[in-house]
Amino acid sequence: MTAGHFRETVDLARCTRLLNHGPVTIITSQHEGRTNVMAASWAMPLDFSPPKVVVVIDNNTLTRRLIEASGVFGLQVPGVAFARETLAVGTSNGLELDKFAAFRLQTFRAQQIDVPMLSGCTAWMECKVIPDDSQRYDLILAEVVAAYADRRVYSDNRWHFDDAPGLRTCHYVAGGTFFSTGEPFEVQATRPTVPESSTPQP
Amino acid sequence: MTAGHFRETVDLARCTRLLNHGPVTIITSQHEGRTNVMAASWAMPLDFSPPKVVVVIDNNTLTRRLIEASGVFGLQVPGVAFARETLAVGTSNGLELDKFAAFRLQTFRAQQIDVPMLSGCTAWMECKVIPDDSQRYDLILAEVVAAYADRRVYSDNRWHFDDAPGLRTCHYVAGGTFFSTGEPFEVQATRPTVPESSTPQP
Description:
Two copies of one chain form a homodimer.
Chain A: E1 7-9, E2 25-31, E3 34-40, E4 43-47, E5 52-56, H1 62-70, E6 72-77, H2 83-90, H3 99-102, E7 107-109, E8 116-118, E9 123-129, E10 139-150, E11 154-155, E12 158-159, E13 170-174, E14 177-186
Antiparallel strand pairs in A: 1-10, 2-3, 2-6, 4-5, 5-10, 6-9, 7-8, 9-10, 11-12, 13-14
């Protein structure tokens, strides 16, 4: 239950914001006592209300098998301090290795689903699969049924990574290389130059 | 054809790398002379070979209508210097406004599809829709048929943003706030602690 006291509920109506900037994720799964954990760069929001996500999980993986059997999975957003573990679970095979034990990963109990959630991450979403034909393209669609984040870097529906650098989210490139999430900046939209024919939406 | 001399072909076998780190994207579309351009944070790779992407495009949009009619779209990755335009095309409605004219956007001709591609971005992918039932979830699946990037920040299948800061990709949060793509870092995967029962994959 490491750092459990830093986890704070995120409003489901805004929870896609945890994933909107495209960070790398880690997926946990469990069915009939068998568990697994893998990294996934290919995960994104799909809808706001109810909040949905879509992830790409290869049909040949243990994770896929466990998720299809249980109908649930944990989706977590690791920080830069967790990048080595992210790479480790992303480059090893759950059919050959108990990754939780091998990489000494700590877990805690999910709120709404029966899947171990990974301690030491920055944000977490508990997901229930939406049955869909898209499986043939390795997609899994899911509804988010619980979400929480480490309040040291996420509160009031806003990221503030400067307050805990190790929890800064990251983005996977290839070959063990990541980008950390960079500095925030705010812009005003360019104004249209032909206002007489336009009604831009807010 | 602004900056056309900076655009360099990206090997299709590696082109998902342009999108792997989860940057915000801009989608261009065209059918029977009508064109549109919108921002999309919800875009990601789906497969390596042939390269595929999946994007979320609301069923009520002009972009969706044009893409469904033409079967093709342009997917571009803007840099931070293009964030104002990205927000502008993401918060205005193509049914009410010719966004290309209103925001003075420059385009150039695509190589493989009949869609205007947006000048001033960092990377580009030309996409052909894969017919699929997932449309009911606002998803569009597509194969990438051409890809190129600004060689000032992407060459030899590698990002190097420091060489042209305005072309650094970015990640959308909400309400006009973006993150720039941060610094790259490389890690070695954690070694498993139970090697006797494991064969980690490379």
